[in-house]
Records
---
Amino acid sequence: MTDGRKLLRRRELLRGATLGSGALILGGCDAMNENATFRSALRGAERLNQLTHRSLADRATLAPEFALSDISPIFKTNGSLTGTSTEYLAHLQTNFANWRLRIDGMVANPMDIGLDGLRAMPARTQITRHDCVEGWSAIAQWQGTPLRLLLQQAQLSPRAKYIVFHCADNYGARPYYESIDLIDAFHPQTILAWGMNGETLPVKYGAPVRLRVERQLGYKQAKYVMRIEATDDLSKFHGGKGGYWEDVGDYEWYAGI
Amino acid sequence: MDARQDMKQGAAKRHRLSTRIWHWLNACVATILLMSGLMIFNAHPQLYWGDFGSREDYAWLQIDDTRTTGFVRIGNTSVETTGVLGLSLDAKENVRRVAFPGWATIPTGYDLAAARRWHFAFAWFFAFGLTAFMLISLVNGHIRKDLHVRRAEWSPRALWRAIKNHAQLRFGDDNGLSHYNILQKFSYIGVIFLLLPLLILTGITMSPAMNAAWPWLLDIFGGRQSARSLHFIAAALLTLFVIVHLIMVLLSGPINGIRSMVTGRHVTKSKPEAAGDLA
């Protein structure tokens, strides 16, 4: 009897503890999620992930490339479907005939180059997979000018650490922009694409040129690139986190996962 | 010596310290990974086979809503799940059009960036916890002595007996050789050596940077979207294992079971199997 009662009491205690800890997990996680120290600890893991990826792969290791038969029948569009600046809309009217890509910042030779100039340079064609942070993927063929050739022409300063891409689209109220480090900027597959699936890059996919940085997620693949700026400090641009979604949605700057 | 003395007092050493530490650590970590993973799934509640897959392609699994009802579709079969999956009410009775409801996700509200941060941070504890547990268990004999399926246990008669015992809610040591019966061994081996490594490897396969570093992972799992599907299926199987595991703990004497996983000591005096707990 007493044994049974003791057992019952213990069992109730146990049940209470189980339910209590369940509620604690739910409420506790939300509270921890709001805690600044905890958030910065999680951010430490982001740097660890980047470090791990960089150490497991050579800086020039290629992202997987696919066959023509692997291309997605319909490549899902997302983000902005056109550039929105007055300047961009004027270029759209003239089919980008007078459009010039500006390359400046920490370079010895700031330059402007048009679509014909880009097309005249050595190009790279690659069939790669585009992975959205949300989880979906689509495969397309991209043709474009390797970024490293442009940076070499512009004579990138040895003090530069990042390449910032200024875009012609406002997403919501803010201008889209992105940035990558020099390892990805000089990666052989990092191109400014002006061709897609054998045709001129369509407007909804980022015409006249979009960035392809194949070892990172979709939000890094900036569309409607108007200006490329070399810098050693990302904090001075817009929200200071190095990209539109990094500023607005708190996504990781390093998007290798 | 210790164990034998304990036997006299009716308590035997059951679980090693490494097993106990990993069990509880992994229980917490796996719960966090499951709940943050469900939030990540909510960002795109469809699954595909192959290399690519988006709203433009055929999804073999979809958890979605028609604005008024929630549903789960697997292949051509659709089941209405309003209130739980696809469409549900939050704590303030607001309608939420999300695949998994807030009570099942970390964080409760929709926040893909935060869920990803939780998931990719705790994944380290998951992967290295499992690796450490496997190595220690190899060295201290846990695998050889407790999990190793002995030849006698493979006999159909012994298997049938174990299944019959389980059906009659009689659990425990039916072979006298190890703490675990054959069905326990099968499920623990399946989880430790198949399911958990599958979760880790399919998770790594979804990273575009890791695809460059270790492209062979894509070949093994048949593409990034297949890896995503397998990751989800493995997580569902792990959840099923945990549910069955908890039911078994309740049925076989929860106090003795939990005590032995906390202190390592298991009371063996009352047979069959702590009937007192069953009431």
---
Amino acid sequence: MEDPVVILDAVSASYEGERIATLHDVTMHVREAERVAIVGPNGAGKTTLLEVINGLLPFTAGEVCVFGRPVARDGHRLRARIAYMAQELFFPPSTPFLVRDVVMAALYAQMGPLRWPSRDDRTRVNGAMAMVGISMLAGRPIGRLSGGQQRKVLLARALAQGSRLLLLDEPTANLDPDAKLEVARIVREVERELAATALVVSHEGGPLLDDAERLVRIEAGRITHDGQMAELRGDLIATGV
Amino acid sequence: MFGLPWHIVLPTLLGSLLAGVLCSVMGTLVVRMNLSSLGFAMSHAAFAGAALGLMLSFAEPLWLAIAFSIATAAVLGPLADLSRMNTDTVVGAIFPLTMALGLVFLNKAPSSGIGSGALALLWGSVLGITMGQVTTLAAVLAAVVLILIAFGKEFFALLLDRKLAQASGINTRAVLYAVLFMVAVVVAVSMRVTGGLLIYALMILPASAAFQWAYDIKKIFVLAPALGIVASLGGFLLSFGMDLPIGSSIALCAAAIFLLSTAISPKRRRVG
């Protein structure tokens, strides 16, 4: 059996100044090409879990490995291979970057220092934008796009990056029903194209969670449910998820 | 030209233009990163260093100005990280310290240094610029351009969004510290032109004006120094034509460019 893509082993984490840990003794393994829905009430620790996995938040106990490498040691290099869609990220209208440059910026860390984008890099970026259906927006300023379009740009970054691990934090928050379906379709396409593993955080349900094979529920920083979606769905509906 | 000998006019003109380009290029980084008070704090750190040079009767206080600016840059980044406060807030906290030190040093300076030397530090004395100082400005400009070309994509990633850059594997802390050090050196070497009090104008105004014209950061990096050149050249001509201090003249031109750009910016236009 292949090694898990993500391993959390007895992980605890807290934000600076917090007396109470935001994550307590969390253990979970995520297999390749698995889609895991992470649900729970506000403040349960869902975003913290994603930030610990990509090394943006240092953990205080336990061990986190991604692609078999410890996040605590190899954070920068690993983050170049992880696509992370932050919950609150929205580009204001004055943002002075064009869509194609925002997508290209996802590749910068992979390129390493003293190298500018090559023709291959541009081909990757154009291909990713075409797959997500935003080629016609390439020359538009990112801040002039709608929330749904901006989400698509972030998904194009993930695709261009070739990331085999997607960490999506509320990817369909504040989107209308059509845009939610469209984002869900693109995520499915990215997963299929890259055989990618996806951890999707949401507190509102929707098509992205419906497609998940596995569902993890977090409450007060602890995993309270972890199992196959089909098995858990009935229990969770009964408990109010 | 204006009856002045070229051996004075040429270094003056070159110094103004080089400072205009340098400050507005760094200003583009500073404005986009919401570190507008950085230029202000660095100029006062440089002012404190140069004032110490006057107090100690150094022949060339520029090196102490650079040393003070770099020391401030070295303190700012780690202090912002340690305090978990916005870098701009920490800059605001450092500024009174450097200003107070500058005034203390000036107060203790020999009386001969206080007159022209102190005024040159505060308001600039571009007419006193030597070709050696012009060469220093040109060398710093070459270094800044080389750094921006070599690490441009890391700077661009940070300018797009710091958290996104960090999440995609960029070492954002190293890039931020690099910006602080570059601003420190640029402010210190450019201070001779506009003076410590007005260098902020040359750093912030052309860059802010450039942001009014374009949505593409690459174009802004070209437009900002172009506007910096216009401000410097305009200030130079205004200064000689109306017998005004050159630092103030450059600042007035830069402010006019900013106000005009804001007023007629294509970003304000509405369709229909």
